[in-house]
Amino acid sequence: NAGVTQTPKFRILKIGQSMTLQCTQDMNHNYMYWYRQDPGMGLKLIYYSVGAGITDKGEVPNGYNVSRSTTEDFPLRLELAAPSQTSVYFCASSNPDRGNGYTFGSGTRLTVV
Amino acid sequence: QKEVEQDPGPLSVPEGAIVSLNCTYSNSAFQYFMWYRQYSRKGPELLMYTYSSGNKEDGRFTAQVDKSSKYISLFIRDSQPSDSATYLCAMEAGGGNKLTFGTGTQLKVEL
User: Fold this and answer.
1) What pLDDT is recorded for position A99?
2) Which residues from B are below 8 Å from A96, CB to CB?
3) Hey, is B82 helix, strand or coil?
4) CA distance B49 to chain A (A)
5) What is the pLDDT of residues B75-104, one digit of tens each?
6) Which of A21, A88, B2, B5 is most solvent-facing, going by the fewest CB within 10 Å?
7) Helices (H) and strands (E) in chain A, counts
């Protein structure tokens, strides 16, 4: 059971480039999330999804886009990378039974130069 | 004012000490309270989960919630070097499973 898998683990982008951060879960969770984590700032919610075909903005959505075509996959797209998007990105999933909390992936470290 | 406040530390304690980690919050709608542990360069993992006020114990870990004071705590007994990590509190009001996280407290347990 792999849980939540994120790729790539590391990436360096130039300003203005685009990329997609991949996230896949094999737990049949309906809910999926993208967070960014900056030093001293905690986890900030970027986008979330409550099921295939349904996405919604979180606290810091500007500069990002998502899609949810299947239950398993929830990719995060950066269209025009900016230095302010340098961060560690975490994907997570959960089911409506709150006692299980979130399952997080191992993260993607992104640097924009 | 942030919805959830957490002292970032770092907190350094000797092995075997009792550790107390705390968060305060301002949103009285929060009903579900969690603690996550995050090792360096890893994703957070769920450590403790509590609904509403009260205590919950799991091995060396005890979570306390005082909704009247808007204050939650995590106690670690007989702390070990393997407990060295960042501890994040998280809270949810309900209806959508969206969590609000604290900024995390960095803990180091020294031999």
Assistant:
1) 66
2) 97
3) helix
4) 7
5) 999 999 999 999 999 998 876 668 899 999
6) B2
7) 0, 11
